[in-house]
Amino acid sequence: MMFSEFIVSPRFLVVSSLLMSLLSPTAQADSLLIKQVRIINSVSDGQAKISKVSDVLIRDGKIQAIAPNLSRHASKATAQIDGRGRFLIPGLIDSHVHLDGVPGYAGDDSKDAAMLQEARAQMPRSYAYFGFTTVLDLTGDAGFIAKWNAQPAGPQAHFCTPVTIPNGYPASWMDKDLQFQVPATKYMLFDPAQPNVYPANFKTDDHTPQAVVNAAKQDGANCIKVFYETGFGPKKNLPVPSVALIQEVVKQAKHLKMPVYLHGNSQASYEFALKAGVTTLVHGMWHEAKNVEQFANQTRLKQIADEIAQAGISVQPTMQVLYGEHEELNPDFFKNPMVAQAIPQRLMAWYQTDAGQWMKNILAEDFEPATKTPAELYQSVKTMYQKPLSTVRRMTAELHQQGAKMLFGSDTPSGPFYTQFPGINGRWEMDRWLEAGMSLPELFSALTMKNARALGLEKTIGSVEVGKQADLLLLTTNPLLDVRAYDTIEQVILRGKAHQRAVLSAQSH
Ligand SMILES: [Zn+2]
User: Fold this and answer.
1) Å from CA of 310 to ligand 1 middle
2) How many whole angstroms from 455 Cα to the centroid of ligand 1?
3) For a tag site, which of 201, 313, 325, 496 has the least CB within 10 Å?
């Protein structure tokens, strides 16, 4: 297909885009030329640069050339996109997702099979619709991730292996016996503090920090995930690993050049991160030390923020975790038109049935005198979440001011919540970053080059440069001036293949 003749005159631009949508949802050509576009790249943390108007030639999934005029390099088979007045940016990277399962759905009722299949097919497209072209699954496994990456239009996934201890988080969420069965037990550490809880077939030698990290590396993991969580909801006072045990995990992981991500959202977990020397904390801090008045501890919190920055530990604030919880009770949640772009209609209808409201009902239990209207209930829940939200905003601002490395991760979904659907949840996390005082250029760096570096993929993705993988977004407005620019994506280019944004929407399927 050749569209170049249509690009000459604006009158034909309409025809060109109409033809694109009629003839092919994706540009099938072997190469793609984006004409006369301005390119935005992150140049250092918190700074980005806009190029002069340029042509960008993509071939075999890679950026082959960038120059003021590349028309003579276009063959008959080269598809073209008019980039005039548009901005070309690197595809976005979310370094905290969980790809397994459909958010908010537990169990497997056979009558839901078609609905779930449709939802699973849409999830990669929803990430792409909101601009995410790379994701890191913090609790993945090789087989699942390979299947995910074989899907036609979605972000490329990488994964960390979760390394657990018995009866701790998250192993304790499983059935007592199930936690010791393969595969759950494969990367479980032998915890010297719990010497007698293992079944007879549990070979201690296979569960040392060295053995478990080696196994994860061999199985293709990019990183290791560990946990410091004493529990919440019905599961409290759970055992946590010792500093010495996780130090050994970190030592072996560093030896194999694998970053170590720590789950933790409490002051204690931040202190643990400092002692254990992990690479990244995957949550903001929303629980201060127990039995201490909110903010009474400010001096200590400032000190922790400073130490985290000094130690070079990066932090994912994941503020959308708390929003996702209280939005479950928002009676107008499904009225937001953006939601219907992400969630298939049939699943959205199911979420609003009695069966689909199960998690919402659990969250509501703590608040519910039966007389309350849904609007009043939502208000009470929001009020309760003000405390952890103000703590996490304040700590995020403090970490940011001290110069800690802030990484973009949405934690999609952080629990069984329909409010944290792929793609859209990351878009909302962007709003949370601005609320906590980060700037638009800082957000842009975090979504692109900084996350590429965190994944060790800075030579392949994270910027619009010759030789890099062509994971790109074409926007009609400038994301360094307004966060809503991320809502003006026109084209999502995945490994060199252009997809019109509308075609990725749940409403197009
Ligand atoms: Zn998570």
Assistant:
1) 25
2) 16
3) 201
Q: Which residues contact residue 185 at a Cβ distance below 8 angstroms, ignoring those fewer than 6 apart?
A: 179, 202
Query: Are 446 and 481 contacting, i.e. CB atoms less than 8 angstroms apart?
Result: no
Residue 139 CA to ligand 1 center (angstroms) comes to 8
HSE toward the beta carbon, residue 296, CA cutoff 13 A: 6
Distance 413 CA to ligand 1 centre (A): 7
pLDDT beyond 90 at 363:
no
Q: Give the residue among 53, 48, 125, 46 at the shortest CA–CA distance from 90.
A: 48
pLDDT at 219: 95
Q: What are the pLDDT digits (tens) for 165-192?
A: 999 988 877 766 777 776 778 899 999 9
In angstroms, what is the span from residue 59 Cα to ligand 1's centroid? 36
Q: Give the separation between CA 38 and CA 148, rounded to whole angstroms.
A: 32
Q: Are 285 and 267 in contact (CB under 8 A)?
A: yes
Q: What pTM does this model have? A: 0.92
The CA 283 to ligand 1 mean position distance, Å, reads: 8
d(CA 425, CA 322): 12
Give the C-alpha distances (Å, rounded to integers) separating 312 from 226, 248, 406, 407, 439.
Answer: 18, 19, 10, 12, 21
- What's the 77 CA to ligand 1 centre distance in angstroms? 43
203-233: pLDDT as tens digits:
999 999 999 999 999 999 999 999 999 988 7
Q: How far is the CA of 147 from the centre of ligand 1 (A)?
A: 20
**Ligand 1 center to residue 94 CA distance, Å?**
12
The residues, any chain, with a CB within 8 Å of residue 161's CB and separated by 6 or more, are: 140, 141, 187, 215, 216, 219, 221, 223, 224, 225
Angle at which helix 298-311 crosses helix 267-276, to 10 degrees, equals 30
For residues 395-408, one letter each, b for 16 or more C-beta atoms within 10 angstroms of the residue's C-beta and e for the rest, the string is: bbbbbbebebbbbb
Q: 398 CA distance to ligand 1 centroid (A)? A: 22
Torsion region of 291: left, alpha or beta (phi above 0 gives left; psi -120 to 50 gives alpha):
left
Cα 158 to averaged position of ligand 1 atoms, centre (Å): 14
Domains contained in the chain, CATH given: 4-91+463-501 (2.30.40.10), 92-138+318-461 (no CATH)
Measured in Å, residue 99 CA sits from the centre of ligand 1 at 10
Residue 82 tokens, joined: 């008019």
Taking alpha carbons only, the member of 308, 310, 300, 260 closest to residue 284 is 308
Please list the residues that pair with 65 across neighbouring strands: 57
* Residue 414 CA, ligand 1 centroid: distance in Å: 5
